[in-house]
Amino acid sequence: MDDIIFLHEDVDSVTMSRDSAKAKFEKAVNLKNNLPKLEQTLTNTKGELASASKKLPDNFLIENVLQKTAMIAQDVGIELRSFDPGRVAPSGSTYKYAELPISVQIFGTFSQIASFLDRIVHLELLIHIENLQLELSSLENKTPAALDLSNKINLLAFQKRSREFSRLTGTVDIVIYRTLNHNERSAISVAASAERKK
Questions:
Q1: Backbone φ/ψ region at 92: left (φ over 0), alpha (ψ -120 to 50), beta
Q2: Residue among 113, 119, 117 nearest 130 (CA)
Q3: Which of 108, 146, 174, 181 fits a disulfide with 112 by CB distance 3.0 to 4.6 angstroms?
Q4: Are the CB atoms for 74 and 141 separated by under 8 Å?
Q5: Handedness of CA 46, 52, 54, 56 (dihedral sign)
Q6: Exposed (0-12), middle (13-18) or buried (19+): which is 104, by Cβ within 10 Å?
Q7: Closest Cα to residue 110, out of 130, 128, 137?
Q8: DSSP 109-154
């Protein structure tokens, strides 16, 4: 009789082991069937991360920004008179990041300056334009000759020639962003903790 009880317990134990193994096998089959979908999700996530990393890099590469800025200035035909990086400052409310304003002085026509700024904000980096100030610059010996402005045709010709010879001096802050490094995040956490304790 004892042998029957032990056999019954062995059957129960084997049945439980079989059921457990069957459940693990079914779970593994489901995971295997979902593997292509998971691989595609991983590939998409890696692509999004790479794209985001280009927009919000881990460090500022001022040389690259200067090189790209100078190349764009040359392409659109403006004169890049100064490129002065400011101080890095942490910013943001919920998600912290570092921002670096770069003060730039430019010289050219209105359309050249507009084209320059458009191309700057469309670089791969996350860039904002702030504090744009434009001032009309006079060009000696390059102003259009005096015309009789009493009729409309001469007035239109004068306006056209004035636009061709008009140049602007502009100052603008180009603000670039990057992620905070570990030390910066730690310093912000410590400061926030100290502020909450007050």
A1: left
A2: 117
A3: 108
A4: no
A5: negative
A6: buried
A7: 137
A8: -HHHHHHHHHHHHTSSS-EEEEEEEEEEE--TT-SPPP--TTSHHH
Give tens-digit pLDDT for 60-84.
678 888 888 999 999 999 999 999 9
User: What is residue 104's DSSP assignment?
Assistant: E
Is the distance from CB of 120 to CB of 197 less than 8 angstroms? no
Task: Give the integer Cα–Cα distance in Å for 190 and 168.
Answer: 47
What is the C-alpha radius of gyration for the chain, rounded to an integer number of angstroms?
33
Please write the tens of the pLDDT for every residue from 111-147.
899 999 999 988 877 788 899 998 887 654 444 455 4
Closest CA to 104 of 56, 72, 59: 72
Task: Please give the residue that has the higher pLDDT: either 187 or 153.
Answer: 187
Neighbours of 180 (CB within 10 A): 19
Q: What is the pLDDT of residues 154-198, one digit of tens each?
A: 666 666 666 666 788 999 999 888 777 777 667 767 777 777 777
Task: Tell me the H-state helices in the chain.
Answer: 2-55, 62-76, 110-121, 152-165, 182-197
